[in-house]
Design goal:
2 copies of one chain form a homodimer. By secondary structure, chain A is of the alpha/beta class. Chain A has 3 domains: 94 residues, Periplasmic binding protein-like II (D-Maltodextrin-Binding Protein, domain 2); 76 residues, Periplasmic binding protein-like II (D-Maltodextrin-Binding Protein, domain 2); 79 residues, Alpha-Beta Plaits (2-Layer Sandwich), CATH 3.30.70.260. Helix content of chain A is 29%, strand content 36%. In chain A, the strands form 3 sheets. In chain A, strands 1, 2, 3, 4, 5 and 11 form a 6-stranded mixed sheet that branches. In chain A, strands 8-7-9-6-10 form a 5-stranded mixed sheet. In chain A, a hairpin with a 3-residue loop joins strand 3 and strand 4. In chain A, helix 8 packs antiparallel against helix 9. Chain A is elongated, with a radius of gyration of 21 Å. Chains A and B meet through strand 4, helix 8, strand 13 and strand 14 of A and strand 4, helix 8, strand 13 and strand 14 of B.
């Protein structure tokens, strides 16, 4: 099985894929989120796996925007705990390290650790890229902040694990396939939809009421401005239930009268959260 | 009047302050969002002005989290159109430029322009910091992607304006004061609240229904996991109306029975959107 993700080897997305699908899959890295959607549509990969929500940073809105436009179907949600490691050369010691390279967000999350050890933070495009640079430059005083997987891939040592301040840093990924490639017998426990309420007062509440009246429990509700129409909103809802359930079909049917459109984004097994 | 923002001189936040309050205010830059809240609480500045939503990147969730914890009150919403300029040394020409420094998001937004002109993108912490570095290094082949304001502040030329691909890039800022410093006679046209629905099926819809039943029109609805309690959500709602309106008071009062808490974040004049 070939699975597309955004990033280079050792990205947290790649680690999430191995956690969920095991090490026997082929993870294929692409430069951009768009390219992962393209690869899925053109059959270059069997499925795509992209981040959609993070407990610290919120929703990855760019991926929600893409999901709305593309003909794909979510078949899994994958929760992955992000924990940052300080990586440097084999045998190196913490006391030698003066500079750490990483993505600005990761540097920010490890700010206290860096301050305590008087390590200068230097921004890079991504965490795995930082690990690669540190390896290539081969300087004793340099380190990267990246995944444990990067240590393995780039031949670096883990100098210190879990150096982030906020331990509740989990990313939710969605794995998605081309619409005609949804596997048979897929366990559908949760469903994700997008919709736009009609333009009258109370229409959003009417839409949501169709769900609650039919006994459907929402687990996420997010509003997102339409990129070409800023400050007009599309709503993204996750709820418990399968698109094959009678009450779900009924609710979505009823919503049709108060929404200008409804798009089913996927129906998939409930992901396992590890905190 | 002293107004706190996050960033260094020339940040887009500073430009937004001048657009809204004019050039006669004193804009004071702080390293972090937290420090801006602190400065407001301690009276070091009269008000804070921070980004809360961007048409491309979505909500600045960290600031929503802070807003929930702090005793401040929103007194204005400010819309500011983000447009990136390529800045370099006085008299320099586009054809000389080989390298551009900026924040990874800005580099991403100008990717097409950079590709077309064969300019290498190099990540920096922030756009204004990139302008500062370019000025200091004083190399003919180097440029920064930053605000027009940065050209003025750091003594650089605007080589090219509006180099971003997506022209719908607007940030919404909230200006907020200490709770006991809300100005008299403030025109309250919109209100922002945060609430948590009780833990039973349909409770969120019940909360929202209290608004629509009382004729209140929502303009934004956002769910946000509670940082220490991931995957449990706080909802943020903006609506048309003043906290002094009778129907708003009634609605919030009624919501009290289906919400575990409601916090009024502010009530303020409607901001002017320029697209």
């Amino acid at each position: 099985m070939r699975i597309g993700y955004q990033g280079i080897e050792g990205a947290y997305s790649e680690a999430a894929i191995y956690q969920h699908y095991g090490k026997n899959v082929k993870a294929v890295g692409y430069d951009t989120f768009e390219e992962v959607f393209e690869a899925v549509k053109k059959g270059k990969v069997d499925l795509g796996c992209l981040p959609f929500e993070n407990t610290i940073a919120g929703s990855v809105v760019m991926n929600y925007d893409l999901l709305l436009k593309q003909d794909v179907f979510i078949i899994a949600e994958v929760f992955f705990k992000i924990s940052h490691s300080l990586l440097s050369h084999k045998g190196n010691k913490l006391k030698n390290i003066k500079v750490a390279y990483s993505h600005p967000h990761s540097l920010e999350q490890c700010r206290k650790f860096l301050k305590k050890h008087k390590i200068k933070a230097v921004p890079e495009y991504d965490t795995a890229g930082a690990a690669k640079i540190v390896k290539e430059r081969n300087k004793k005083e340099e380190a990267a902040i990246a995944s444990e997987l990067c240590a393995e891939i780039y031949g670096l040592d883990i100098i210190k694990k879990g150096i982030e301040s906020n331990k509740y840093n989990t990313t939710k990924f969605f794995a998605f396939v081309k619409k005609d490639k949804v596997p048979n017998g897929l366990k559908k426990e949760k469903t994700s939809i997008a919709f736009k309420a009609k333009h009258y007062s109370g229409s959003l509440v009417n839409c949501l009421q169709r769900l609650s009246k039919n006994g459907i429990n929402m687990t996420k509700l997010e509003s997102r401005p339409i990129p070409e129409n800023p400050w007009e909103y599309v709503f993204y809802v996750d709820f418990i239930g399968s698109i094959d359930d009678e009450n779900v079909k009924l609710a979505l049917n009823e919503m049709g009268t108060t929404a200008t459109f409804i798009k089913i984004l996927g129906s998939y097994p409930k992901g396992r959260k590890e905190q």
